[in-house]
Amino acid sequence: MNDQQALIVKMILDSWNAHIGRTHKLFEALSDEQLQKEVSPGRNTGVYLLGHLAAVHDAMLPLLGLGERLYPQLEEVFIKNPDKSGLQKPTVKELRSYWSTVNEALAKQFAQLAPAEWLQKHTAVSEEAFKNEPHRNRLNVMLSRTSHLAGHHNQLIFLQ
Amino acid sequence: MNDQQALIVKMILDSWNAHIGRTHKLFEALSDEQLQKEVSPGRNTGVYLLGHLAAVHDAMLPLLGLGERLYPQLEEVFIKNPDKSGLQKPTVKELRSYWSTVNEALAKQFAQLAPAEWLQKHTAVSEEAFKNEPHRNRLNVMLSRTSHLAGHHNQLIFLQ
């Protein structure tokens, strides 16, 4: 991997970090009461989106081949089911803690990856398929999850 | 520029194209009447976001050093001023046309850029500053504008 390649990898990681940072700041600025509200009438609550983002980011650990999920129980409530599923949710305090812990765990793992390792396959693609689809790598997961985060951030600002 | 670098450039452009595609599909699915509504109470209307995205994407032409803006008049209404500025807006029909034309103009320019040219500086940074900040390149504009688009897309879905 040459310098230019390492530069592009850094740009993508910097973009992820910037979006994590501004969304974290937004969650800190929102009270528990504000998070209970829907971002638009009939849409997801802030609490659901907080749990959803924690769950999706938690699932990045195994998807990127960087470890097991820390809170596998979040998937059922915040990924497989919608906000008004009737399933019991953790408290807002717990969800805030999960969100922070998961992002810190990711940051710790990312710091240990060499630039070239970002072009290795993610775990949802087989070795066989990866030969013909080299874009199905860790870096592509970062592009996709950064857009996902940006999308939900811009919904959460409506709670302010 | 080697193959791996060209692959990452392609991944970033594919991500942009995917977001343009799904947002275009959404605008086509929304009626003029739906676009007149606010995405959340007191927030931007669909019409404003349509004009805003057309204006921001139009400004990418000079920012990327790929030509002049096609509709410079959009900046005042849709970038410098908020939705309820009282400034006269083009019709929804006109805005739909601007949105499509601008994205087609970008696509046409992008098709002519070699992978290595994406790492060249954008026009908002000086040659001098670029020496120390090589991340201020065209590709970084694409990362930033893709997240911007993803953010507004997720607000526009509330109009459905």
Overview of this protein structure:
Two copies of one chain form a homodimer. By secondary structure, chain A is mainly α. Helices cover 61% and strands 0% of the residues of chain A. Chain A is built from eight helices and no strands. Chain A has helices at residues 3-29, 32-35, 46-58, 60-63, 74-78, 92-110, 127-132, 138-156. In chain A, helix 3 (46-58) runs parallel beside helix 6 (92-110) and helix 3 (46-58) packs antiparallel against helix 8. The longest helix of chain A is centred in the first third of the chain and has 27 residues, at 3-29. The first copy, chain A, is globular and about 50 Å long. The model of chain A has no long low-confidence stretch (mean pLDDT 97). Chain A binds chain B through residues 1-2, 4-5, 7-12, 14-15, 19, 39-41, 43, 119, 134-135, 139-140, 143-144, 146-148, 150-155, 158, and chain B through 1-2, 4-5, 7-12, 14-15, 19, 39-41, 43, 119, 134-135, 139-140, 143-144, 146-148, 150-155, 158.
